[in-house]
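Milestone 3.1: sequence recovery, worked example.
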């Protein structure tokens, strides 16, 4: 099916055509009513009649409808796909240029700087899309998740994307899952996607939001309840009258940040709000098709009536009583009402002054978000308030940008002194070339983004990032302080008068319709076989991959421990973003950041460990390189929720490239664990989490019984201590039979390559 700037209605009708039969199969096999997530999953099973359906246990093969990749992760995914031996992608695939645009001056200057500075990478992505039949969204198109919401997402569909915030599409009732590039390659090559049948968390929403409360507050509250790993292995399904009261883009905001609780994905049922959004974005035919099968695009009636019978856990939230919330710093689950932040910040010594406010990102850049925030800006200007610190606005897409410019909303922000940035990720992902504050200066920022790990936005460890709704961001930025409650406090205007900010309802959709803006989509040619994909052998941005070696059939014996990470070790800690984004297509160069942010459990140093070859202390990337060049294989040790954060498969590829054979942790984040498996690394968890404490800096690790590796069978690990004693411990894994074959082949890609080439 040809790749277009939107999902072809023929594809959608094909998905809907099988709903009756497959949902009936699911009901018969489970002998009960079905949730919405179960309906969509059953409809996309490779074998709906025979697949295991045990939650949290069964591995199943799925057939997603499409793949979407952002430019940072797409480079490595395409480099992997190029080795598979196929002439074209087997499912609709798009690449979106959004991550490599640095925020510094303004939209025009920053976009041009990105086009010039990333010319080699953009040329590679454009040519590889043309060669293999994929769509290409040029720089300036917008953030991948916003473009997907506007163009590709549809109720009841299933997609994967190489970014952890792919679940944004759940706002339109789509099962959209963030994955690593190797997972994407599976689907792009026409192979089924192997994944664990998820658990289900239900969130029952009642009432309706009012005043300063916004959809963002729903997910901040859920994150507060579930924590950063409370959604791991589960789909979060929102239902109830409160869910139906939210706009489609409000639903998307909530689904987007499901990544911050580790959820597989999040979604809402199809309803009138989703139908309105589909029609407003030129997809009337999709809305009509969805209307015809609407009874299949929501949970069965008994699910809402008796949710405890269908979900593994149920959370109740009354939107009418939900107050504006704010989370942070340093973790996305540290949430509290905005009104309580001042006292907590004072008690903990966080800087009370707000040094910058940032609005936008894939999480909060809809027309509705912008109208609410712009209304506050307009009210502030009328009341004689000016912004004393930088206020940065990031439109989510070219369509949103063009529309809010036409409707005068950008002018509202600019009248306040705000700077409008490019339609890109920018400050949200560490692509903020900050000029107003120097590194090392403790400061607080407020954003409507999703992540707030240290060094996330501006690369500064001393920046305290707090995440909240766009409405609250602009209020706190205008007040200039964290101890400001916009619902109850006043601001002193430029004339010394005490005034109160007003909040309006916002506009769900533009009355004059969306303005598409510039055409930034490039379809592939009908025949791309003659297109040359050029990767210079001397490039420092792109590097053709060499397959990882297959398992040699032997146990792992006496391997040194490169790193024993203490506390948070996110994908940002393992493979930092920011300036390292330029090397996402060059495995060797980007491995210069491996474990750079990890906190050494032996002494607390950041990014520095012991080189066992000579007893010297060095940065982890340097040690890893020395081990690699000396042919020394090694293991890494992690704490709870190892690999929390993004879908960044470089956090798995870099250790594998440098010689990692196993990562042993107290627990793993879902995507990182899968990425390690895909690259031929053993992710193991301590059967007794206290065994983490047994591993010393100079100890050696052996992993035994690998010839008998089997689903559900524990793996023996022997720790040889420096004093000559040893400890034998038990570890667990989540490998399926198919995934064990990835390990034996050396990587999942090695197995695919062998199968595609016969």
């Amino acid at each position: 099916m040809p790749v277009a700037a939107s999902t072809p209605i023929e594809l959608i009708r094909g998905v809907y055509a099988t709903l009756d039969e497959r949902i009936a199969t699911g009901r018969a096999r489970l002998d009960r009513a079905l949730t919405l997530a179960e309906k969509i999953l059953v409809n996309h099973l490779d074998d709906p009649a025979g697949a295991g359906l045990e939650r949290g246990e069964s591995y199943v093969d799925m057939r997603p409808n499409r793949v979407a990749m952002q430019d940072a992760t797409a480079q490595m995914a395409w480099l992997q796909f190029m080795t598979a031996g196929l002439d074209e992608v087997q499912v609709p695939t798009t690449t979106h240029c959004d991550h490599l645009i640095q925020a510094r001056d303004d939209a025009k200057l920053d976009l041009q700087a990105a086009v010039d500075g990333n010319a080699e990478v953009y040329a590679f992505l454009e040519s590889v899309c043309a060669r293999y039949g994929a769509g290409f969204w040029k720089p300036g198109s917008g953030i991948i998740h916003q473009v997907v919401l506007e163009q590709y997402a549809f109720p009841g569909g299933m997609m994967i994307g190489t970014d952890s915030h792919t679940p944004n599409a759940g706002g339109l009732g789509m099962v959209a899952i963030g994955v690593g590039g190797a997972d994407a390659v599976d689907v792009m090559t026409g192979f089924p996607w192997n994944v664990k049948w998820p658990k289900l968390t239900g969130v029952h929403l009642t009432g309706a939001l009012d005043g300063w409360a916004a959809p963002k507050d729903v997910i901040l509250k859920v994150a507060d309840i579930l924590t950063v790993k409370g959604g791991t292995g589960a789909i979060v399904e929102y239902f109830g009258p409160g869910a139906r009261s939210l706009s489609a883009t409000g639903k998307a905001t909530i689904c987007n940040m499901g990544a911050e609780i580790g959820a597989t994905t999040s979604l809402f049922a199809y309803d009138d709000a989703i139908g309105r959004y589909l029609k407003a974005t030129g997809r009337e035919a999709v809305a009509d098709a969805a209307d015809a099968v609407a009874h299949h695009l929501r949970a069965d009636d008994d699910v809402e009536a008796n949710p405890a019978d269908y979900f593994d856990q149920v959370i109740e939230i009354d939107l009418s009583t939900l107050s504006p919330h704010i989370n942070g710093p340093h973790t996305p689950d540290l949430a509290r009402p905005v009104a309580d932040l001042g006292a907590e910040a004072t008690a903990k010594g966080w800087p009370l002054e707000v040094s910058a406010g940032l609005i936008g990102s894939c999480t909060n850049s809809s027309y509705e978000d912008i109208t609410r925030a712009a209304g506050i800006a307009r009210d502030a200007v009328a009341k004689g308030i000016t912004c004393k610190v930088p206020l940065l606005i990031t439109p989510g897409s070219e369509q949103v940008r063009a529309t809010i410019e036409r409707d005068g909303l950008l002018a509202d922000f600019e009248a306040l002194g705000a700077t409008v940035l490019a339609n890109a990720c920018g400050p949200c992902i560490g692509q903020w070339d900050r000029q107003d504050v120097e590194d090392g200066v403790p400061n607080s920022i407020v954003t409507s983004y999703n992540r707030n790990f240290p060094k996330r936005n501006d690369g500064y460890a001393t920046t305290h990032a707090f995440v909240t709704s766009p409405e609250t961001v602009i209020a706190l930025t205008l007040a200039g302080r964290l101890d400001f409650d916009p619902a109850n406090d006043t601001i002193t205007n430029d004339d010394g008068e005490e005034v109160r900010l007003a909040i309006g309802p916002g506009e769900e959709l533009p009355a004059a319709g969306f303005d598409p803006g510039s055409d930034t989509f490039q379809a592939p040619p009908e025949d791309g076989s003659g297109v040359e994909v050029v990767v210079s052998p001397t490039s420092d941005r792109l590097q053709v991959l060499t397959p990882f070696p297959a398992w040699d059939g032997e146990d792992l014996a006496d391997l040194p421990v490169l790193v024993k990470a203490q506390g948070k070790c996110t994908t940002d800690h393992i493979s930092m973003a920011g300036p390292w984004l330029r090397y996402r297509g060059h495995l060797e160069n980007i491995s210069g950041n491996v474990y750079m942010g990890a906190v050494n459990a032996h002494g607390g140093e950041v990014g520095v460990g012991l080189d066992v070859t000579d007893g010297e202390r060095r940065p982890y990337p340097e040690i890893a390189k020395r081990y690699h060049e000396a042919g020394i294989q090694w293991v890494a040790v992690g704490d709870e929720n190892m690999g929390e954060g993004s879908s960044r498969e470089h956090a798995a590829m870099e250790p594998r490239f440098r010689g990692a054979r196993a990562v042993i942790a107290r627990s793993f984040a879902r995507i990182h664990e899968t990425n390690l498996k895909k690259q031929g690394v053993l992710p193991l968890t301590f059967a007794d989490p206290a065994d983490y404490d047994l591993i010393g800096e100079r100890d050696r690790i052996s992993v035994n019984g690998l010839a008998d590796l089997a689903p559900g069978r524990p793996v023996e690990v022997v720790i040889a201590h420096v004093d000559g004693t040893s400890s034998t411990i038990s570890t667990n894994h989540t490998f399926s039979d198919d995934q064990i074959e990835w390990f034996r082949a050396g990587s999942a890609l090695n197995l695919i390559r062998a199968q595609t080439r016969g």
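The chain has 26 helices and 30 strands. Residues 373 and 471 are 5 Å apart (CA to CA).
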